[in-house]
Every structure is written in structure tokens, then in C-alpha cells.
Amino acid sequence: MERTYLSKWSSGGDGHFSTGIGPTRMLNSEGYMCCLGQFAQQVGVKEQNLLGKTTPDHVAKHLDKIYDDNYFYKGFL
User: Fold this and answer.
1) Which pTM does this prediction carry?
2) How far apart are CA 33 and CA 29, in angstroms?
3) Is residue 1 part of a domain?
4) How many Cα atoms sit within 13 Å of 39 on the Cβ side?
5) In sequence order, which ranges of 1-77 are alpha helices (DSSP H)?
6) Rounded to whole angstroms, how far apart are CA atoms 77 and 74?
7) Does the residue 61 lie in any domain?
8) Parent domain of 65
9) Rounded to whole angstroms, how far apart are CA atoms 67 and 2?
């Protein structure tokens, strides 16, 4: 299993308090991931499907899946 380390975390876009290198994406071309990208990777989404995506629904559309944003409201978190 491939591991994601905090040193590859990206957040804050291009703002003053941003972290990481490059734009904030689920996985950017520099290898940095936002928290949603790290979560998606941990549940089995392949890096090639995360690259350049900004939100979970972009990943779902790429995989021809239906994104249910109510998933988190059904007791998951």
C-alpha cells in the first residue's frame, strides 16, 4: 500500500497561508495533495484519477460514477 505523508499536503490555493508547491488539487503535477485527495487515495482511488481534479464530483465524473454529496450526512462523519 502506498502511503501519503503530511509533507506532501497542499492547501490554501495560492494564498499567503498556502502549503505545498503548485495549485491546490486532489493531486497536483508536483505530487502534492489536499486532504480530500489523501482521503480518496486511502480508500482506493488511483492517483491517475486524482491528478488535476479539484473536487470529489470531478473524480466521480471522470470515473463515470454518481457522486452523492449526502454520503457524509448519513452518519459517516
Assistant:
1) 0.70
2) 10
3) no
4) 9
5) 35-42, 47-50, 56-62
6) 8
7) yes
8) 6-73
9) 25
